């Protein structure tokens, strides 16, 4: 791969499900991505309508499996299959990839050592994005193996991952399972909260459509306010929560219920611990 010129080489995306499609859509967006039909190949055995539409619009080749000719000249290979599919994928790709091709894995649990066994000698980056990345509002945390230490590898990965939003780098791989549990899975916790808030509104007599509208607007608005307070360093989540909570008021009544006996903080603590354990378990099975 040419040093300091991260966007010139050929990229293969292996697996175009939810996350793979979000990545590909970002790369093919002229303003953000910089890849085109000459530089991107997608490997996906199950063509969804979304994939067919995206590939058709940009003239991207979609292959059911990576051929030797498509692998020639690749400098970055992004793995976006389920962790359970990784061992078979290692065998499928083994020997086909150019020796110095950078492997970028977004698989939950899959550690650098295990990936290194499947792709020996390759520079490898383990990354954990999240679904808000599909609208450029995600956050990805990444770590590289020793072979990918030279800065141009990180720059090459950054260029691909940044289409999803911001990218943070860590040096201690043990953090990746916690990252997966917090920001990788985290959107689901917020969506569950939204579902629960809408259902509670309905239970209090609101029409379903209005309850859902209120729940969505409240979560989206609170998120935007939180992000603004964080960026401008004016208010954190606790300060914003206190600003809603009048003494003896309605919010206090609700928060008393949410905090009773450890309440929501303890539930979230236990939930994140379960996700972190599951990430390690997925990794140890590889
Ligand atoms: N969905 C999420 O919120 C996040 C998922 N991840 C990770 O991203 C990876 C993909 O997740 P999703 O996109 O949600 O899954 P998905 O199931 O939507 O997509 C996986 C795709 O891989 C394809 N596939 C399977 N075997 C293949 C092979 N040998 N070659 C090429 N393609 C193959 C499947 O047909 C499928 O379309 C997982 O490892 C997950 O841990 C990471 C961060 C967030
Ligand atoms: O649930 C999962 O395993 C994946 C990883 C993070 C979000 N989804």
Sum up the structure in keywords.
12 helices, EC 1.5.1.2, ProC C-terminal domain-like fold, P5C_Rdtase_cat_N, binds 1,4-dihydronicotinamide adenine dinucleotide, NADP, 286 residues, 14% strand, binds (2S)-3,4-dihydro-2H-pyrrole-2-carboxylic acid, alpha/beta, 2 domains, oxidoreductase
Structure description:
With 286 residues, this protein is of the alpha/beta class. It has two domains: 10-176, NAD(P)-binding Rossmann-like Domain (Rossmann fold), CATH 3.40.50; 186-284, ProC C-terminal domain-like (ProC C-terminal domain-like fold, Orthogonal Bundle). 50% of the residues lie in helices and 14% in strands. The protein contains twelve helices and eight strands. It has helices spanning 18-28, 49-58, 68-71, 86-93, 112-118, 151-161, 175-184, 186-203, 208-231, 237-244, 250-259, 263-284, and strands spanning 10-14, 40-43, 61-63, 74-79, 102-105, 124-128, 138-144, 165-169. Strands 3-2-1-4-5-6-7-8 form an eight-stranded mixed beta sheet, sandwiched between helices. It is elongated and about 70 Å long. 1,4-dihydronicotinamide adenine dinucleotide (NAI) is lined by residues 14-20, 43-46, 80-83, 85, 89, 92, 106-108, 128-131, 184.
């Amino acid at each position: 791969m040419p040093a300091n010129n991260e966007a010139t080489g050929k990229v293969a995306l292996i697996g175009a499900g939810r996350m793979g499609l979000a990545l590909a859509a970002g790369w093919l967006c002229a303003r953000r991505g910089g890849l085109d039909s000459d530089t991107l190949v997608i490997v996906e055995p199950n063509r969804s309508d979304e994939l067919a539409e995206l590939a058709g619009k940009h003239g991207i080749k979609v292959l059911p499996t990576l051929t030797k000719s498509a692998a020639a000249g690749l400098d970055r290979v992004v793995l976006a299959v389920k962790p359970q599919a990784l061992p078979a994928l290692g065998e499928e790709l083994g020997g086909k990839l150019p020796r110095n091709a950078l492997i970028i894995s977004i698989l939950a649990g899959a550690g650098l050592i295990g990936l290194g066994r499947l792709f020996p000698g390759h520079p490898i980056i383990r990354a954990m994005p999240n679904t808000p990345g599909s609208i450029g509002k995600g956050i990805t945390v990444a770590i590289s193996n020793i072979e990918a230490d030279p800065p141009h590898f990180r720059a090459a990965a950054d260029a691909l991952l940044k289409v999803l939003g911001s990218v943070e780098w860590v040096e201690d791989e043990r953090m990746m399972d916690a990252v997966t549990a917090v920001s990788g899975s985290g959107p689901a916790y917020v969506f569950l909260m939204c579902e629960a808030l809408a259902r509670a509104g309905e239970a209090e007599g609101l029409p379903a459509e209005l309850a859902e509208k209120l729940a969505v607007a409240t979560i989206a608005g609170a998120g935007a306010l939180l992000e603004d307070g964080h960026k401008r360093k004016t208010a954190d989540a606790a300060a914003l929560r206190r600003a809603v909570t009048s003494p003896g008021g309605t919010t206090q009544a609700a928060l008393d219920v949410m905090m009773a006996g450890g309440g929501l903080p303890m539930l979230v603590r236990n939930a994140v611990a379960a996700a972190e354990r599951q990430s390690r378990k997925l990794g140890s099975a590889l």
